[in-house]
């Protein structure tokens, strides 16, 4: 077992740097053809079916929220990162005025939040729930969602379904480049990942992500690092956490095509508030 590694390196999205700048392009390129593909269209379809307004937690660059607003739904997103919120706000102002007016982005922490209103739908896309590093944080977050949903309202969580072969000490060393993305200003950003720590007892891992920007001649313009810590949660463990917070699992999927649950893919859960 590898222990936690204290380090002053910025956490994910903490700084307004390369990661935030290339987030949308990186997501599109890296997860094309995976179980995550099509998530935005799925969220839009479900929210139109269930009705708004919609609450999106860890809304990031507005990748999901702005699509919801463009589809005619009021959406409130919150995120801990000022840089991600600023990006979402810039993208919001580029929408048609009616769509832009339907979206708002607020500061907020997934661990505990109070927006002073309720919603019929709340979303936590793209594994953000796994940045809660222990069960007390998870329970506190689910309790906050329960308070922000109307009776019968739905909470949608997207986690990765843990692959057992990657959860052993023998598999902790992980290093390599994940993707190369071209930026809008004509440079290239190479994204690398290295595992620093792995704790199977607490179900956590700690990765160091690197971002290297180069120009057309290959000269390095900027290099930055960020740290990602996540906790994996098993399917039935998540069921128990939801039940403890007053939710009943309504549906589960292995991807955003409506496939039934399957080992090692996505853990997409629709839970209904009591």
Descriptive overview:
The protein has a seven-stranded mixed sheet with strand order 3-2-1-4-5-11-10, with helices on both faces. A four-stranded antiparallel sheet has the order 6-7-8-9. Residues 1-6 have low confidence and may be disordered. The chain has two domains: 1-29 and 171-230, no CATH class; 31-162 and 232-273, 3-Layer(aba) Sandwich (Rossmann fold). It is of the alpha/beta class. The chain has seven helices and eleven strands. The longest helix is centred in the middle third of the chain and has 14 residues, at 135-148.
Which terms summarize this structure?
2 domains, Rossmann fold, 7 helices, 33% strand, alpha/beta, 274 residues, 26% helix
Furnish the topology, listing elements before pairings.
Layout: H1 18-30, H2 39-50, E1 54-57, H3 65-70, E2 75-79, H4 82-93, H5 97-101, E3 103-107, E4 119-124, H6 135-148, E5 149-160, E6 175-182, E7 188-199, E8 204-214, E9 220-231, H7 235-244, E10 247-253, E11 266-273
């Amino acid at each position: 077992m590898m222990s936690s590694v204290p380090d002053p390196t910025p956490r994910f999205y903490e700084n307004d740097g390369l990661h935030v700048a290339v987030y949308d392009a990186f997501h599109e390129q890296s997860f094309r053809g995976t179980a995550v593909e099509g998530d935005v269209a799925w969220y839009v379809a479900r929210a139109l079916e269930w009705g708004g307004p919609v609450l999106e937690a860890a809304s990031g660059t507005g990748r999901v929220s702005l699509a919801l607003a463009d589809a005619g739904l009021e959406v409130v997103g919150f995120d801990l990162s000022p840089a991600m919120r600023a990006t979402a706000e810039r993208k919001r102002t580029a929408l048609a005025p009616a769509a832009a007016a339907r979206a708002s982005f607020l500061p907020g922490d997934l661990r505990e939040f109070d927006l002073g209103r309720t919603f019929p739908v709340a979303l936590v896309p793209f594994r953000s729930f796994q940045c809660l590093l222990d069960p007390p944080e998870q329970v506190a977050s689910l309790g906050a969602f329960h308070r922000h949903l109307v009776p019968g309202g739905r909470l949608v969580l997207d986690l990765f379904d843990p692959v057992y072969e990657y959860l052993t000490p023998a598999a902790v060393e992980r290093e390599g480049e994940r993707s190369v993305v071209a930026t809008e200003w004509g440079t290239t950003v190479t994204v690398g990942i290295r595992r620093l720590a792995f704790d199977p007892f607490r179900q956590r891992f700690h990765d160091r992500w690197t971002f290297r920007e180069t120009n057309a001649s290959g000269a390095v313009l900027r290099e930055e690092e960020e740290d990602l810590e996540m906790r994996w949660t098993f399917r039935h463990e998540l069921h128990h956490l939801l039940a403890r917070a007053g939710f009943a699992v309504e549906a589960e999927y292995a991807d955003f095509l409506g496939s039934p649950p399957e080992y090692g893919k996505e853990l997409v859960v629709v839970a209904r508030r009591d």
